[in-house]
Amino acid sequence: MKIIRSVKEMKNWTYEIRQEGGTVGFVPTMGFLHEGHLSLVRESTSKCNHTVVSIFVNAKQFGPNEDLDTYPIDFEGDKKQLESLNVDVLFYPSHEEIYPEGHATFVSVEELSGRLCGKSRPGFFRGVTTVVIKLFNIVKPDIAFFGEKDRQQLGVIKKMVTDLNLDLSIKGMPIIRNSDGLALSSRNDYLNKEDRDSSLSLSKALNKAKLMFAEGETSAKVIKGEMTKIIEKEKNTRIDYISLSHPENFKEMEKAVSYSLVALAVFVGKTRLIDNCILGSR
Amino acid sequence: MKIIRSVKEMKNWTYEIRQEGGTVGFVPTMGFLHEGHLSLVRESTSKCNHTVVSIFVNAKQFGPNEDLDTYPIDFEGDKKQLESLNVDVLFYPSHEEIYPEGHATFVSVEELSGRLCGKSRPGFFRGVTTVVIKLFNIVKPDIAFFGEKDRQQLGVIKKMVTDLNLDLSIKGMPIIRNSDGLALSSRNDYLNKEDRDSSLSLSKALNKAKLMFAEGETSAKVIKGEMTKIIEKEKNTRIDYISLSHPENFKEMEKAVSYSLVALAVFVGKTRLIDNCILGSR
Questions:
Q1: B225 and B136 in a common domain
Q2: Which of A13, A91, A107 should be substituted to probe chain B, the one whose Cβ sees the most B Cβ atoms within 10 Å?
Q3: How far away is chain A from the Cα of B62, in angstroms, using its nearest Cα?
Q4: A99 and A210 share one domain
Q5: Secondary structure of residue A249 in the 3-state scheme
Q6: Do A165 and B134 touch (CB under 8 A)?
Q7: What's the pTM?
């Protein structure tokens, strides 16, 4: 596995590969890899001739009071895992390499980015879309893989790709969970034992929503009310949002239908966790 | 000359050309072509194996009280001129083709876009950079050509290309003027006889600035003061801005130096005209 740190070298690699032909799969990450990331990498190596994984903790998507400074890092561990999965290139640029002094250009997807997570994290999606279009332009993949845990991110990126006429496909991959239901996230590492217990309320609340819908309940208000109860019963939880929305434009829906997205963000202690499910799916 | 109206067909053409090899030059325009545009096209056909010219009146770069509805059009005339210059493709998409319903993604270059023209035309550069990145992604040129009359636009686009790691070069070409000094612009077509006379004050004011600087004057205030007098002497003129700034970041400078940009925007009657020069150049 080649480790590339400069934009120029990454572009050169892509250029060479393009001359030879063959497809390039791309998995952009912020590192501290878990099975969720690795499932994307496996999908890429199985579908594409070459796979590039990037590790870049993107400062532009963190708010001033968020966890940029404490975001977990384990470069050596990540490297080993990626090597074992036959990744071709690990792209690991510095902040300055991606955002040289004077960087001033931003991409934003309006409306979509202001809903759900965008409401409580202003500037978050603008940071995401800006770094992602840069990475796409540098790596030039045929397919880029994103996890469905960050479903709004996935939707916003798909919209950007369509709106800006980019030539790649975006593939969303299912959420990977611990056996007890907690969706994998690098931020789970922040949880102490007590908070780890409380964190199970997110997936429990989603399961409750699914069950209620399966049993005929369609009122978003009633469903969200039950979910709220499940979360609030646990220690140290503070709901950021619980939402029942359209899965592509994230507009709130009053009546649940079989494709509705149920999404939530909950602070457990100081850690903000997110999770979601589509109603009527497994 | 092929006339292409759909994004898909344009992308297919580019794809085919890329398979064959050879370079693609691109001149994006809003039509109603004059010698300024044609100088860009000639440069493209002389430097590149293939040349694509687009005609698209980009609604997103017009403000609510601007001249979108009256912007001059002469498709048949434009077509003839481009044919005679051996252009390969005229890309002539509809509004809906570029901005399908629900389009929500915008690119903005901050700071630079808020100065000079950006101050009086909020949203203008955001509209420009959004359509330009889309056109770049659709046409995928090796070189794109822009006129120096819109020098801030040229600077903003160059900055976007750098910041978003796009793979093309941007080439600025000199302002083309009438024999009496008026910089060519599609909007000159709006001027009645009286306003046409007054419009000469823009280039006169720039020449005065050059002369003053050549004779040793370096105070921006003094230079701009003399320019103001020249403009205000003429009938029906209203100064939008007169600026002496850094030619790349467009920050105002108090002291003129040999690369300073002198730029101005003036309403002559209802028509807003712009012009500029670099001090110390011919």
A1: no
A2: A107
A3: 19
A4: no
A5: coil
A6: yes
A7: 0.96
- Per residue in A50-75, pLDDT (tens digit) is 999 999 999 999 999 899 999 999 99
Tell me whether residues A164 and B107 touch, CB distance under 8 A. yes
* Selected residue of A11, A164, A250 to mutate for chain B interface (largest B Cβ count, 10 A): A164
Chain A residues touching residue B163 (CB < 8 angstroms): 103-105, 134
Catalytic residue among B34, B37, B50, B95: B37
Work out the average pLDDT over B185-192. 95
Containing structural domain, residue A252: 186-276
In a domain, A13, yes or no: yes
pLDDT at position B281, please?
75
Tally of domains in chain A: 2
Q: What's the pLDDT band for B105 if we cut at 50, 70, 90?
A: very high
B282 pLDDT above the threshold of 90: no
Looking at the structure, do residues B111 and B227 belong to the same domain, yes or no?
no
CA distance A196 to chain B (A): 38
In chain B, residues with a C-beta closer than 8 Å to the C-beta of A160 are 105
Write the ipTM: 0.95
Q: How confident is the model over B31-86, as pLDDT tens digits?
A: 999 999 999 999 999 999 999 999 999 999 999 989 999 999 999 999 999 999 99
Q: What is the pLDDT of residue A282?
A: 60
Indicate which CATH number applies to the domain containing B69.
3.40.50.620
Residue A178 lies in a domain: no
Residues in A touching B103 (Cβ below 8 Å): 163
DSSP state of A176: P
